Amino acid sequence: MPTSTWATRPTLSLELSRRLVDAAVAAAEAGGLRVTVVTVDESGVLREVRRMDGAPLVSLQTAMSKAYAAAAIGMPPDDFFAAIEPDPAAVASFANRPGLALIAGGLPVLADGQVAGAIGIAGAMTAAQDRAIAEAALAGAAG
């Protein structure tokens, strides 16, 4: 079978992963925050992790779960939660899935409209701060 007919998906490169992590750390430092930054590939497999000095230990697993959720769902997990919140059965179903955090701080990384990976941030005082750092990382890595 010719390889041109094989299904392929974009994936988060090491170079882009490093730029995302560096941009996230810079954004956190600018805000005086200590966080953990995680990137995953298109399948939600860990690509890179950086836990800043002083970041809470619990932020490691939380950042991983946020990144995995963003890659698995293909949208920010907090936006997904807002969409399913009116449906208690859906909320219960997703709330019981291991490794899936439906809170702010995870963003998918898209390439040509397809999920190539995701970033997860945890450890700031609020999930909104985590999301702002993730957004800054995407903007900083792209520029």
Automatic annotation (TrEMBL):
Q: Which InterPro entries match?
A: GlcG_carb_metab_protein, PduO/GlcC-like, PduO/GlcC-like_sf
Which Gene3D superfamilies does the entry mention? Haem-degrading domain (3.30.450.150)
Under Pfam families, the record lists: HbpS-like
- List the PANTHER family hit by this protein, alphabetically: PROTEIN GLCG, SLR1406 PROTEIN
Name under which the protein is recorded = Heme-binding protein
Origin organism of this chain?
Trebonia kvetii
